[in-house]
Design a protein that fits this description.
Blueprint lengths: L3 H9 L4 H6 L10 E6 L3 H5 L5 E4 L2 H6 L6 E5 L12 H21 L11 H4 L3 H17 L7 H20 L3
Parallel strand pairs: 1-3
Antiparallel strand pairs: 2-3
Helix pairs in contact: 5-7, 7-8
Bound molecules: zinc ion (ZN).
The site of zinc ion has 4 residues, from helix 5 and helix 7.
Length: 172
């Protein structure tokens, strides 16, 4: 079982990070996730504000085929006690946010866009990305528990409000 101390050690020592990630129980998302890699290389990522990303399989992306697992990347920005004060916050982003994107990719679940005849046409559009983000954030919020820190929870709630505002601005 990983602990808050393991997380804080991984914040301190770069070399522990991939091992820390590998030991996280991915729960139900394991079936949608091919790999989780720590991307530490170079100054670029060190100064990037990127936290984690989910990359779908190329067959899913280009041909719209369901059933492919995604690759998750974890950037140095996620090992930050201000961004993820607790180990559980880190897992919230990894499992419930990125894991939700991976599940969407796997099932090609486009939410509101599923009912549209030409879902491919809007894939990659701003609204498409915002709705995808909204689904991931809602999944994260649904899975918050008392071990999540208050500051993290309120930032995710703020992100949600910002996304909804942007969608309204776009006319949704
Ligand atoms: Zn996201």
């Amino acid at each position: 079982m990983l602990s808050q101390q393991d997380y804080e050690d991984a914040i301190k020592y770069n070399a522990l990070r991939q091992n820390f990630i590998d030991r996280i129980d991915r729960g139900g998302t394991a079936e949608f996730v091919f790999s989780v890699n720590y991307c530490s290389n170079g100054l670029f990522w060190r100064h990037s504000r990127k936290i984690m990303t989910t990359k779908s399989h190329w067959k899913e992306y280009y041909f719209g085929k369901p059933g492919y697992k995604s690759r998750l990347s974890v950037y140095p920005g996620s090992f930050n006690i201000n961004f993820h004060p607790s180990f559980v916050d880190f897992c919230s982003t990894l499992i419930f946010h990125e894991g939700s994107h991976a599940r969407d990719n796997f099932y090609r679940n486009f939410g509101v866009f599923n009912s549209r005849p030409h879902a491919m046409d809007i894939e990659g559009s701003v609204a498409f990305e915002l709705f995808s983000e909204l689904r991931a954030i809602d999944n994260q919020i649904r899975n918050f528990n008392c071990d999540n820190s208050e500051s993290f929870k309120s930032r995710v709630e703020r992100d949600r409000k910002r996304i909804v505002r942007e969608l309204v601005t776009l006319g949704w």
